[in-house]
Automatic annotation (TrEMBL):
Highest classification ranks of the organism: Eukaryota, Metazoa, Chordata, Craniata, Vertebrata
InterPro entries named in the record: 6-blade_b-propeller_TolB-like (IPR011042), Arylesterase (IPR002640), Serum_paraoxonase/arylesterase (IPR051288)
Residues at the active site: H115 (proton acceptor)
Post-translational modification: Glycosylated.
Family according to the record: Belongs to the paraoxonase family.
Name of this chain's protein: Paraoxonase
Length: 357
């Protein structure tokens, strides 16, 4: 009898704990947030990028956008069975026709599952390197390619694995072989990854990698997601998606990052893009992260784009540039401006090009 009571008490306590955690998680995921439409003019869908997502985008100075598509990520919906692909979209060409980026021989394209991407241009010889977070069979690794514009192709140079790079979400390259990367989970193990979300602890890290050293250079993120660098290469920006914050971190001489400030954004912001001219940050955000994960086509997740101006000043301004309730685009994960236009990508839905007001 005594034993039964103990078991009952434990089960009741555990259920209460799970229930309480669920409520906390729903709150953190902004499950009940109402979104008011805030559309931009002349939005056009990018044909050919429907239902495969366009999770991350980076735009080269000549207007070529590189887009990562087909992400399959545990716990998130995915509507494409095909392997992931990288696309090129020439924003200088009115036709807006994406073409698959050719990957040279010797790379396994069947298991390719690209996530965050970043480009590094070597100032000395103008070589362009494309860094891609890849999750073949749910693993976490970084691929470095060389991009050859004349051939519309990339050639694989190397794959990087490290136990510190166990749950990489996004990456920013800082040299031909070095980068900063975010981990969106604390645990590397698939089951523990699902459980840790209930604990909602700030245990995630940012890692610096070079062939000489790999180290954790910043921590205490609930889930470190998008990462990018300031135009002067002095600061790193990290979006803590579950913290509803964007962190400004200073690159120190030893490659460690020191905390400068964090800016509240009030949304679950995913990738961070930086306007190389103005220094403004552009964030593709999930206004309702709960809906983005649970996914009900009758009640789709919305999209939100935020812009942060003067982030290094006393009073950064956070402006909502675009919001949609999911009737146009679901689950926006990235937004990047180019010559008066805004390219918006999503985790598993469409890509949209709008005019900025
Ligand atoms: C989104 O808002 C539009 C009005 O702008 C409305 O017609 C539509 O039903 C809404 N969709 C959802 C999924 O709430």
């Amino acid at each position: 009898m005594g034993k039964l009571i103990v078991v009952c008490v434990i089960v009741a306590a555990f259920s209460a704990f799970i229930g309480e955690r669920f409520v906390k998680l729903r709150e953190r995921a902004l499950a009940d947030r109402l979104l008011v439409q805030n559309h931009l003019p002349n939005c056009r869908l990018i044909k050919g990028l429907v239902k495969c997502g366009s999770e991350d985008v980076t735009i080269l100075p000549n207007g070529l956008a590189i887009i990562s598509t087909g992400l399959k990520y545990p716990g998130m919906p995915s509507f494409s069975d095909a392997p992931g692909k990288l696309y090129l979209l020439d924003l200088e060409n009115e036709r807006l026709k994406p073409v698959a980026l050719r990957i040279g021989q010797g790379f396994d394209t069947e298991s390719f599952n690209p996530h965050g991407i970043s480009v590094y241009t070597d100032e000395k010889d103008h070589s362009v390197y494309l860094f891609v977070v890849n999750h073949p069979e749910d693993k976490s690794q970084i691929e470095i390619f060389r991009y050859v514009e004349e051939e519309n192709s990339v050639f694989h140079l190397k794959t990087i694995y490290d136990q510190l790079l166990h749950s990489v979400n996004d990456i920013v390259a800082v040299g031909p072989e070095s980068f900063y990367a975010t981990n969106d989970h604390y645990f590397g193990n698939a089951v523990l990854k699902q459980l840790e979300i209930l604990l909602l602890q700030p245990w995630c890290t940012v890692v610096y990698y070079s062939p000489e050293e790999v180290m954790v250079v910043a921590d205490t993120f609930y889930s470190a997601n998008g990462i990018n660098i300031s135009p002067d290469n002095k600061f790193i920006y990290v979006s803590d998606i579950l913290g509803h914050t964007v962190h400004v971190l200073k690159i120190e001489g030893n490659n460690y990052l020191s905390n400068v400030k964090s800016v509240n954004v009030g949304s679950l912001c995913d990738n961070v893009e930086v306007d190389r001219e103005t220094g403004d940050l552009w964030l593709g955000c999930h206004p309702n992260g709960w809906k983005a994960v649970m996914y009900d086509p009758q009640d789709p997740p919305g999209s939100e784009v935020l812009q942060i101006q003067n982030i290094h000043s006393e009073k950064p301004t956070v402006t909502q540039v675009y919001a949609d309730n999911g009737s146009v685009i679901e689950g926006s994960s990235v937004a990047t401006p180019y010559k008066g236009k805004l390219l918006i990508g999503s985790v598993y839905h469409k890509a949209l090009l709008c005019d900025l007001k």
